[in-house]
RNA sequence: GCUCGAGUGGUGGAAUUGGUAGACACGUUGGACUUAAAAUCCAAUGGCCAUUGUGGCCGUGCGGGUUCAAGUCCCGCCUCGAGUACCA
C-alpha cells in the first residue's frame, strides 16, 4: 500500500476538527503551557510558503509540550483592522468588513490544510466589536490613570485628584506634559471644571495634545514618514507640510525605564532587545538653563532656554546655542533686525519633513536670531542660533553648542565663523572636534580645570544646582506614541466631547461600533472618514448612537472621529485568548490566574519597536492596575527568519525584439524582466511558450537560446506578487502533502535565519515520509534487538534536545538517519515503531496519526506521552577510541567504556600498533581524554 | 557613522565543554530495473597528487597568536547581511 498523503491528511484534519482534539480548558491539574504565534493580518494575497514557517515551529513545540504532559494553549486569530482593506474599499466601494471576511476564510482554509493544532474555539479578530470592546476598555483605563513616579506605577486618576485637593501639584512626582503649571490646593479648588479637566489631561496615560504631524492638505490626511517622498506625498505627489494637530497620544515615556529594566527578565533574542534598548535610547547627562538676555524693549518678558547635554563637563566650551526651527522661543526672542531672515528659514524648514531633513546630513544651514543668552558661570553673552541639525523631537529641542567637543557643533561653527574655544588639555582641535571622553582633561574652565570627564561632569552638575540653573537628568529618545489615525478601518475611540473636553463612554454602552459610511475618504472639510457617518453621535439621554445631524442638540455630543492605530488591537490579544468570549470583563481572574503569561511567542523581528514594545507597555500598565498578574507578557520569544523568494529574470534587448538567455546577455544592452517562477523548471530553464502566453506583449519576441535552452537569471528577493516569485503552499500540499511541507520548511535551515525558498529540495523529505510509511507496512510483535533500541533511543535523545533548542532542522536529519537505520536493520518491532510515530508526530502529525492507528490505537496520537529516553540502550561494552600519533598517523582501538584514564594510557602504550608507530622511540607525552581521542606525541 | 549578526563543498546546511570538518538533504555522475519514461534501489561525489594496493598533501573569508589539538579561543583586518541614524 502506498503513502496516500491526500487521503490521510484530509482524514485527520476532519478528525481533529470533529473531536476538538486541541481544545484546551482553563482548569487542569497538568502544568500549563502557552505557545503563541503572532496572528496575521489577513491580506488578499493569501498565504505564501514563507508565512507558515513560524506557525509550523510553534505548532511543533506546542504538540511536543502536549506529548510531554502539559495543558497547552495554542490559539490563533486575525489582526483584521488595517490599511489594505480600507484602500480596497476606497477604490472599489466594497466594505472593508466584506473584504476582511473573504480574506479570513481563505486564510483559514490554508491554515487548516497545514494541520495546525490550533484551538479555534478561542479565535479572536481585532475588527470584531466583541473583541474591540475590550481594546476600547483598555483605552478608558489608560485615560483614567496617571503615572506616580514615587510608587513607580500607574494609579487611578482619582488618587491624583485627591492629592491636588490636599496639596496641589507642587510636591507630586508624576509623568506629565512639560508645560504643566504649578498650582496649590487652593488654586485647584478654585479652578473651573473645564480647567481641572484640562490639567488632568496633562497627567492621564492617554491624552489629547497638539502633535507635529506630516499633513497633506490635498489628501486631507496625516501621512506617515514613509508615505512621503521628496517632500511630496507618495500618492499623487501633493505637497506635505509639518503641522500641529490635536491627536490622542499614549504616555509610553512614563514606562521608559521599566521597559528597559524588564528586558533583563525575559528570554528574548539579544538583537531584538538591543533594538528596543536603542529605541528607548536612555542617555545620562544634565539639563541646563540659560537665561536669555533681553535686548529690545519688546522683549520685556524674561525667557529661559533649557537644554539637555550629556557633556556638562564641557560647559565652558559653549560658544553659541542652537534652537530647532520649531522651538517655541524662536518667535519670541528673534530681534527685529533678524525677523525677516529667521521667518524665511523657519518657513523653508517646515516644508521639509523631519525624515527629509535627517537624510540630508551634509548641508549645514542655520540663521542667527540676533539674541544672546547668558552663560551660567562666565555670564558672557552666548549668541543664539537656529539650525535644522537640532531636532525639535529630541531633548528640549535646543542645544548648548560646544564646537570643540562635538563634531556637528564644530561644523556649524566653522561654517558660520563662530569662535571655537578649546577647553581640552593637550588636544589639537584645528581640524576636528575632540569627543573622546576617556582621554578628556578639562582646561580653561575655571573650577573644572584638570578634571577628568567623570569628575568634571559631577562637579559641573553640582555647581549648576547651586545656581539653580541645572541638574543631573536622564533623557530618553522614546517619544509618546501618537494614537490617532484619520482612517476608517480601525477601532473607534470610546470618546465623546462635551464643551470640547473628551469624555469616556461608559462600559455598559461599549462597544462603540464603527458606523457605516458612504465614502472611506476624509470629508471635504478635512475631517477623518468617520465624519462621513450620518448616523453616529452619542445621545446621553437615550444612551444610544443617533444621527450625526443632531450634533447641536443639547443632549447630543460629537464623537471622536479618529480611529486607533494598527497596534491597538494587537497590544492585548495574547491575554484575551485566555478567555475570549467573556462579555463581562476583558478576561476573568481565574483565566489569567491560570494561564499567567505566554511561555513561548514566535513571530517576526520586524515588530521589535512596534507591536512588541507597545504590548510590553500595555502589559505593564495592566499589571500596575491589577488586571494582569505578570508585568511581562511573554517570557520567551523566538524570531523566525524570513523565507525569501528566488526570482527569475529574462533579459530583453533594448534595441531589438531579442530576449537573451542568461549566458548570452553580457555585453548586450539588456534590461532584466521578472518571469513567473512557475514557468521555470528546477534547472532554470524557461517554458518559452508559457511565458509568451503569460505576457502577450512579448509574443513576437525572439528568444535567443544557449544549448537549445532558455536559461533564466536568478536573484533572491522578498517574496511578493509583484516580483512573480511567490510559491503557494496549496500547490505544494497538493503535490507532496502538508507533512512534507512542514518537514521541508523546518529542514530548510535554522529557524531564526532568513533563507531562500527552493522547491526542488522537497523531494528529500517527501521520500523520507515514503520510507517511513514503508517501515510500518510490516509490523510485528517481535522483541527489538540491541541495534533497534540503540537507534530509537539515540533518536529520542536528539529530537528532544533539538526541540528544546529550536533546532528543528537537525531533527529532520535525525529522523532520516533513524528510518534508514531501522530499514537496514529490517526492524518490524512494534515496541520500536510505536514510540517512533510519537517522535515524528509534532513534525508530521497526519502520517503519525495514521501510523498510530495502523498500530492498533483508537485514540489520537496527540495526547500520548513522549517516549522516555534511557541511557542504558546507548551504552556498549567497548567503545572505539580513535588514536592519533603526531597528529598524522591514526588508528582505532576498541577499549572498554568504563576504563580509567591511566589504564587507557597503559593499554595504548602496550598496543602493537603504538609500538610500531613509535619504532622504539619514547613518546614525549600521551594525552588521554576518556571517550575522546588519544594523542601520542612523539 | 553607530549597534548587532554572519562568512564551512556546486547548493541548503551539520559539527556538545576546543577533540577524526563537511552529518543529513539537494544537485551532479555512473549503474540496476524498464521497450521507454516516471518511480524505486545501489555506488561515487571538498580540492590536488599517487595508484596494482594500503595512501599522501592542502583545506572552514584573510593575516598572526595560544594549544598535543582551533570552524570553535585571543589579536588585527576584509567582505556580506540586518537594524538604526544630525539623539546633543
Keywords:
938 residues; 18% strand; 28 helices; seven-stranded mixed β-sheet; globular; six-stranded mixed β-sheet; alpha+beta; RNA-binding
Mean pLDDT, all residues:
86
Structural class, judged by helices and strands?
Answer: alpha+beta
- Estimate the strand proportion: 15-25%
The quaternary organization reads as single chain
Question: Roughly what percent helix?
Answer: 25-40%
Poorly predicted regions: 548-552
> Main β-sheet, in a few words?
7 strands, mixed
Kindly, what is the distance between the CA atoms of the first and last residues, rounded to a whole number of angstroms? 61 Å
Summed up, the helix count is 28
List how many beta strands DSSP finds: 34
Rounded Rg: 35 Å
Instruction: Report the principal-axis shape.
Output: globular
Task: Outline the fold blueprint.
Layout: H1 5-19, E1 32-37, H2 52-67, E2 71-73, H3 83-92, H4 96-113, H5 129-143, E3 145-148, E4 153-156, H6 157-167, H7 185-190, H8 193-201, E5 206-216, E6 221-223, E7 228-229, E8 232-233, E9 241-250, H9 256-262, H10 270-280, E10 282-293, E11 304-309, E12 320-323, H11 329-333, H12 339-350, H13 354-359, E13 366-374, E14 381-387, E15 398-401, H14 407-415, H15 453-467, E16 470-476, E17 481-482, E18 495-498, E19 501-504, E20 537-539, E21 544-546, E22 556-557, H16 573-576, H17 589-595, E23 600-603, H18 611-624, E24 637-639, E25 643-653, E26 658-660, E27 670-675, H19 688-694, E28 702-704, E29 713-717, H20 729-736, H21 738-747, E30 755-756, H22 762-775, H23 786-804, H24 808-824, H25 830-840, H26 845-854, E31 878-885, E32 889-896, H27 901-910, H28 912-918, E33 925-928, E34 934-937
Parallel strand pairs: 1-2, 1-23, 12-14, 23-24, 25-30, 26-28, 31-34
Antiparallel strand pairs: 3-4, 5-6, 5-9, 7-8, 9-17, 10-11, 10-13, 10-16, 12-15, 13-14, 18-19, 20-21, 20-22, 25-26, 25-27, 25-29, 31-32, 33-34
The chain binds one RNA strand of 88 nucleotides through helix 10, strand 11, helix 13, strand 15 and helix 14.
Amino acid at each position: 500500500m502506498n503513502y496516500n498523503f491526500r487521503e490521510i491528511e484530509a482524514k485527520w484534519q476532519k478528525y481533529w476538527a470533529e473531536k476538538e482534539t486541541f481544545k484546551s480548558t482553563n482548569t487542569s491539574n497538568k502544568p500549563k503551557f502557552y505557545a503563541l504565534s503572532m496572528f496575521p493580518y489577513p491580506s488578499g494575497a493569501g498565504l505564501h510558503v514563507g508565512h507558515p514557517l513560524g506557525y509550523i515551529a510553534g505548532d511543533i513545540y506546542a504538540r511536543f509540550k502536549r506529548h510531554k504532559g502539559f495543558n497547552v494553549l495554542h490559539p490563533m486569530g486575525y489582526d483584521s483592522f488595517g490599511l489594505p482593506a480600507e484602500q480596497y474599499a476606497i477604490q472599489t466601494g466594497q466594505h472593508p468588513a466584506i473584504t476582511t471576511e473573504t480574506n479570513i476564510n481563505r486564510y483559514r482554509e490554508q491554515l487548516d490544510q497545514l494541520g495546525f493544532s490550533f484551538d479555534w474555539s478561542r479565535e479572536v479578530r481585532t475588527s470584531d466589536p466583541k473583541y474591540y470592546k475590550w481594546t476600547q476598555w483598555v483605552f478608558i483605563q489608560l485615560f483614567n490613570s496617571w503615572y506616580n513616579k514615587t510608587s513607580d506605577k500607574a494609579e487611578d486618576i482619582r488618587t491624583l485628584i485627591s492629592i491636588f485637593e490636599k496639596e496641589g501639584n507642587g510636591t507630586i512626582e508624576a509623568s506629565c506634559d512639560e508645560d504643566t503649571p504649578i498650582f496649590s490646593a487652593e488654586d485647584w479648588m478654585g479652578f473651573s471644571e473645564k480647567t481641572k479637566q484640562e490639567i488632568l489631561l496633562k497627567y492621564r496615560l492617554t491624552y489629547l495634545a497638539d502633535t507635529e504631524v506630516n499633513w497633506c492638505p490635498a489628501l486631507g490626511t496625516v501621512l506617515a514618514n514613509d508615505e512621503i517622498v521628496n517632500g511630496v506625498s507618495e500618492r499623487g505627489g501633493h505637497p506635505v507640510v509639518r503641522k500641529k494637530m490635536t491627536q490622542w497620544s499614549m504616555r509610553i515615556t512614563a514606562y521608559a525605564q521599566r521597559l528597559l529594566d524588564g528586558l533583563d527578565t525575559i528570554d528574548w533574542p539579544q538583537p531584538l532587545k538591543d533594538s528596543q534598548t536603542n529605541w528607548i535610547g536612555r542617555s545620562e547627562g544634565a539639563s541646563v538653563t540659560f537665561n536669555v538676555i533681553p535686548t529690545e524693549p519688546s522683549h520685556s518678558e524674561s525667557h529661559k532656554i533649557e537644554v539637555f547635554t550629556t557633556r556638562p563637563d564641557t560647559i565652558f566650551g559653549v560658544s553659541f546655542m542652537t534652537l530647532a526651527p520649531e522651538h517655541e522661543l524662536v518667535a519670541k526672542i528673534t530681534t527685529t533686525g533678524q525677523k525677516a531672515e529667521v521667518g524665511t528659514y523657519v518657513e523653508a524648514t517646515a516644508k521639509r519633513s523631519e525624515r527629509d531633513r535627517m537624510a540630508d546630513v551634509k548641508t549645514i544651514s542655520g540663521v542667527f536670531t540676533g539674541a544672546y543668552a547668558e552663560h551660567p558661570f562666565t555670564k558672557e553673552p552666548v549668541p543664539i542660533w537656529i539650525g535644522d541639525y537640532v531636532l525639535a523631537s529630541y531633548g528640549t529641542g535646543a542645544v548648548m553648542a560646544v564646537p570643540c567637543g562635538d563634531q556637528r557643533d564644530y561644523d556649524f561653527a566653522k561654517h558660520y565663523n563662530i569662535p571655537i574655544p578649546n577647553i581640552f588639555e593637550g588636544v589639537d582641535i584645528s581640524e576636528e572636534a575632540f569627543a573622546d571622553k576617556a582621554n578628556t582633561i578639562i582646561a580653561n574652565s575655571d573650577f573644572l580645570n584638570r578634571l577628568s570627564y567623570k569628575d568634571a561632569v559631577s562637579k559641573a552638575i553640582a555647581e549648576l544646582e547651586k545656581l539653580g540653573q541645572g541638574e543631573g537628568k536622564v533623557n530618553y529618545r522614546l517619544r509618546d506614541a501618537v494614537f490617532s489615525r484619520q482612517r476608517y478601518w480601525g477601532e473607534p475611540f470610546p470618546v465623546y466631547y462635551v464643551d470640547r473636553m473628551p469624555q469616556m463612554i461608559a462600559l455598559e454602552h461599549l462597544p462603540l461600533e464603527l458606523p457605516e459610511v458612504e465614502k472611506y475618504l476624509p470629508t471635504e472639510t478635512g475631517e477623518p472618514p468617520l465624519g462621513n457617518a450620518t448616523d453616529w453621535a452619542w445621545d446621553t439621554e437615550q444612551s444610544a448612537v443617533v444621527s450625526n445631524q443632531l450634533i447641536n442638540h443639547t443632549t447630543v455630543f460629537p464623537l471622536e472621529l479618529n480611529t486607533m492605530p494598527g497596534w491597538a488591537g494587537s497590544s492585548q490579544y495574547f491575554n484575551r485568548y485566555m478567555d475570549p468570549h467573556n462579555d463581562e470583563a476583558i478576561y476573568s481572574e481565574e483565566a489569567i490566574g491560570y494561564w499567567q503569561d505566554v511561555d513561548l511567542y514566535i513571530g517576526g523581528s520586524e515588530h521589535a519597536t512596534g507591536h512588541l514594545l507597545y504590548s510590553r507597555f500595555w502589559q505593564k500598565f495592566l499589571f500596575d492596575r491589577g488586571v494582569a498578574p505578570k508585568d511581562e507578557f511573554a517570557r520567551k520569544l523566538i524570531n523566525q527568519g524570513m523565507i525569501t523568494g528566488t526570482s527569475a529574470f529574462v533579459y530583453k534587448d533594448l534595441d531589438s525584439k531579442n530576449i537573451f538567455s542568461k549566458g548570452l546577455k553580457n555585453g548586450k544592452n539588456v534590461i532584466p524582466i521578472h518571469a513567473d517562477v512557475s514557468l521555470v523548471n528546477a534547472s532554470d530553464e524557461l517554458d518559452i511558450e508559457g511565458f509568451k502566453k503569460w505576457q502577450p506583449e512579448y509574443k513576437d519576441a525572439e528568444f535567443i537560446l544557449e544549448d537549445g535552452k532558455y536559461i533564466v537569471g536568478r536573484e533572491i528577493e522578498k517574496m511578493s506578487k509583484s516580483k512573480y516569485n511567490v510559491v503557494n503552499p496549496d500547490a505544494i500540499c497538493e503535490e507532496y502533502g502538508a507533512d512534507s511541507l512542514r518537514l521541508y520548511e523546518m529542514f530548510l535551515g535554522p529557524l531564526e535565519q532568513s533563507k531562500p525558498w527552493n522547491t526542488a529540495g522537497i523531494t528529500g523529505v517527501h521520500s523520507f515520509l515514503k520510507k517511513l510509511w514503508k517501515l510500518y507496512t510490516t509490523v510485528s510483535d517481535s522483541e527489538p534487538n540491541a541495534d533497534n533500541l540503540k537507534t530509537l533511543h539515540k533518536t529520542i535523545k536528539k529530537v528532544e534536545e533539538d526541540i528544546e533548542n529550536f533546532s528543528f532542522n537537525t531533527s529532520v536529519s535525525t529522523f532520516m538517519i533513524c528510518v534508514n537505520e531501522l530499514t537496514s536493520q529490517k526492524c518490524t518491532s512494534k515496541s520500536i515503531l510505536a514510540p517512533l510515530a510519537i517522535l515524528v508526530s509534532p513534525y508530521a502529525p497526519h502520517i503519525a496519526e495514521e501510523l498510530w492507528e495502523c498500530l492498533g490505537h483508537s485514540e489520537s496520537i496527540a495526547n500520548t506521552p513522549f517516549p522516555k529516553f534511557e541511557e542504558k540502550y546507548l551504552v556498549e561494552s567497548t567503545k572505539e577510541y580513535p588514536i592519533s600519533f603526531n597528529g598524522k598517523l591514526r588508528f582505532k582501538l576498541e577499549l572498554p567504556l568504563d576504563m580509567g584514564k591511566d589504564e587507557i594510557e597503559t593499554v595504548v602504550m602496550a598496543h602493537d600498533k603504538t609500538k610500531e608507530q613509535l619504532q622504539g622511540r619514547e613518546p614525549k607525552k600521551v594525552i588521554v581524554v576518556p571517550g575522546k581521542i588519544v594523542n601520542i606525541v612523539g
